Amino acid sequence: MQSEDNNTAIKQQTEGGWGEGARFLLTAACAIIVLFGLREARDLLLPIVMAIFLAVISYTFTSALRRWLHFPHWLAVFFTVVADAGIIYAAGSLIKYLAADMKATIEGDFMVQMQSKYQAIMQFLHDWGYGAEAQQFIHAPQEYINPKVIISISQTLGSQVLSLTSVTTLVLILMTFLLGEAPLFTRNFRALPNSIQGKDKVIEALKSIQRYLFIKTVASATTGLLAWWLCQAKGVPFAFLWGVIAYLLNYIPTIGSIVAAIPPIVLALVLGDLGDGVIVSLGYVFINFLIGNGIEPLFLGKQFGIATSVVLLSVLLWGWVWGPCGMLLAVPITVMLKLALENSRDLHWVAAIIDDNATPSSEDIKNNNKITTTL
User: Fold this and answer.
1) Is residue 19 a part of any domain in this protein?
2) By the number of CB atoms within 10 A of the CB, which of 29, 190, 303, 368 ranks highest?
3) The whole model's pTM is what?
């Protein structure tokens, strides 16, 4: 009797359309095609996405100007765009300055210090009878670090800042229109014939993204200041640069803080001694633990409800699609995708899998009970 019921179900499924396995494969294939399309359209889509997220972040400042200083909307938008433009171009000028400072330092006594440290290490190994073996594996710093290549990279980095001006200008123009028409978008959104619950989820997600980016900015600035102070105290070259890198990479969950710590630790070990390397390493561990596992969870909590492994995978995925900017936007993009999946009848199960605080609904419990009974 049971086998007849199963055959009947399979027949109905075949007559009604695609089977579950075929639908899954089709969905996966469509997702891969979309990802490759997004990757190929990076130059077109990335400025638009950056403008949207900058508008989402900046709208809080625009609303504050309207609420507290009673600015008209157009004037609040103007001051918001001017402030954002000042921050962006100041960051570009800072990168140019750091590139010039690195060039001057490398052309100075940096390589002399590296060579002196190399000779000291080789002499120490020779005294212990490992000189011949060490020379086979440890080569002179000139063979690992080419000053001309580093100088060329720093000069290229400085020149590329100017080439980004056109893209930044486009982003600011798009952001200006988005902020200017934000009340219109809000009014049209509330007029949509969707359920009130769905609208509330979208609004709550946007507010969560604003809160996340604001707290992440404060935490990243604190991380950068502490990293700069640590490197400056231990005499690590380019201390200000490592502070800026720690600030920027802290926006990238998990991976960013690890990558930002590697160069200063290596320099502390090479140019200082073992004690300096250990202190710098422990200092970075303490800073990242304090900010990443103490301050940020205290203020952010688990408001997004996304598993940590999913966040890490999304950073890698969007980094492949859109490069460093994709890594910076990985969490907000994943939040919006999770919201879309939650409101999809066919793909709701994907949102349930990646949810860190998933609570099964009454319908899911009912379906699971049916499956258990059948088995």
Assistant:
1) no
2) 303
3) 0.73
Name the residue among 250, 210, 198 with its Cα closest to residue 227.
Answer: 250
3-state helix, strand and coil shares in percent for the chain, rounded to the nearest 5: 85, 0, 15
Residue at 213 is within a domain: no
Q: What is the DSSP letter of 236?
A: -
In a domain, 132, yes or no: yes
Instruction: Identify the sign of the CA torsion 97, 100, 102, 105.
Output: negative
What is the extent of the structural domain holding 89? 39-183
In this structure, the number of other CB atoms found within 10 A of the CB of residue 223 comes to 28
Q: Is the dihedral of CA 358, 361, 367, 368 positive or negative?
A: positive
3-state class of 306 per DSSP?
A: strand
Is residue 354 in a domain? no
Give me the number of domains the chain comprises: 1
Which residues are CB-neighbours of 225 under 8 A, at least 6 positions away? 243
